[in-house]
Design a protein that fits this description.
about 140 residues; alpha+beta; Tetrahydropterin Synthase, Chain A; five-stranded mixed β-sheet; 5 strands; about 30% helix; binds nickel (II) ion
Length: about 140
Amino acid sequence: MIFITRRERFSAAHKLWNQNWSDEKNFSTFGKCANPNWHGHNYELFVTVKGSIDPDTGFVADLKEIGKILKEKVISKIDHKNLNLDCDFMKDVMTSTENLAVEIWNQIKSDMVTLGCELHCVKITETENQYVEYFG
Ligand code: NI
């Protein structure tokens, strides 16, 4: 079993806000991420797939094809967008990095099978000091 990773970068706005809570509780829980007029992050997305090496190509999967799928199914929907308002697959969920990783996984899992590999990990860095990893 061998693992390969494709990185994509995107910039997006969001706000963390729980409608069922008071303003005070939202601000104390989410801090700067509760700013009423939004704020943004420069995110990095790392998609890792696993499989065996195809003897004809020497590849686990064609990273160029993985990049194409990521651009079409994910990056085009979130780059320079508002995650709360613009992105169909983030509707009705808190736009935390955790939820973003889960929803991106759901968007691309079956496409990785089509490419002959298996999705292993979706990792997202929101700042240089923290990241989230989802393994399904
Ligand atoms: Ni934030």
